[in-house]
Design brief:
six-stranded mixed β-sheet; 298 residues; 20% strand; 2 domains; 13 strands; five-stranded mixed β-sheet; D-Maltodextrin-Binding Protein, domain 2; alpha/beta
Length: 298
């Protein structure tokens, strides 16, 4: 028993305070969680994906080459950096473009033109934060103007007055870049038609329905055309300008600059010698400058 009433009152007061302190701590923690904004990257980012070297989006006929997978990278991003990327895969490019145009995604991982050409429709402002390297650590894509190996056509200039197949408007390297190449060289084919795929353009050459065609430079190694055509069946007359092969783009109308920078730094840190083996290469590099003139205001 305490020696006097004064000591008893002090002990009783301390007992009440000790009971109250845990409740006070919980209240402070609750108020702090309400007033502190979430850290960058705490919100999952929904990304639409079409990657020619990814097993989840490439045709099964090229899975010996297109064997890239992303789950290991996603695990490292979440565990090491607290960044949650949710990838939604689209094997058909028209499905990808519909998804991008819907405005429902925070970004896209694909050929940049697929996203950039729809940003007005989507109300988006896409910014490339990294370029994705292919299995040979190449970042570039070109269109190649090809003819059958036994064709009498020897130079690009020989295409004047001839029948040429190019890609459709969604395939920059086979369409816009191909048209610009011909214009710069002053070459006027007699007829220009379009096909949706490299396989179709290879087919018209094999069926002798055209004199030349424009393909993506990976068409005879990482595209369905490998099922019925070999590189030695064709000769390359010219290449179009280099453009980025695959980029990760974020919609900066939805993403804070700090969040984009944080994701970029994390991806670059998980590249080179630190790249997961499942990426089939060195991972990511800072985006190379590319400004398609078609996007410039008239």
């Amino acid at each position: 028993m305490p020696g006097n009433k004064f000591e008893y009152r002090i002990m009783k007061k301390e007992f009440r305070m000790n009971k109250f302190l845990p409740l006070l701590s919980v209240g402070i923690a609750f108020l702090s969680s309400c007033s502190t904004p979430p850290s960058p990257g705490s919100r999952p980012l929904k990304i639409a994906v079409n990657d020619i070297y990814c097993m989840d989006t490439a045709c099964s006929c090229v899975h010996d080459v297109a064997a890239r997978t992303y789950p290991q990278l996603l695990e490292k991003l979440k565990a090491n950096y607290g960044i949650d990327l949710q990838l939604v895969y689209f094997s058909e490019t028209y499905q990808l473009e519909d998804a991008i145009a819907s405005g429902e995604y925070d970004g896209a991982l694909c050929k940049p033109w697929y996203a950039l050409r729809h940003q007005k429709e989507a109300g988006a402002n896409f910014q490339r934060i990294v370029d994705v390297l292919d299995p040979n650590n190449n970042r570039w894509l070109t269109g190649i103007v090809v003819v059958p190996a036994d064709s009498p056509i020897q130079t690009l200039e020989d295409l004047t007055g001839k029948h040429l197949y190019i890609g459709q408007a969604d395939a920059y390297e086979k369409h816009q870049a191909a048209k610009r190449l011909l214009e710069q060289k002053g070459i006027r084919p007699g007829k220009v038609d379009t096909n949706a795929s490299c396989g179709e353009n290879v087919g018209v050459l094999l069926d002798e329905e055209a004199d030349a065609a424009v393909l993506s430079d990976y068409a005879l190694s990482a595209d369905c055309a490998v099922d019925f055509a070999r590189p030695e069946d064709f000769r390359i007359l010219a290449r179009t300008e280099q453009i980025p092969l695959t980029s990760l783009m974020l919609d900066m109308n939805k993403i804070e600059e700090a969040e984009a920078d944080r994701l970029q730094r994390a991806l670059l840190a998980l590249s080179g010698k630190n790249a997961p083996e499942t990426l089939l290469g060195n991972g990511f590099v800072e985006p190379a400058p590319w400004n398609p003139p078609e996007l410039e205001a008239p």
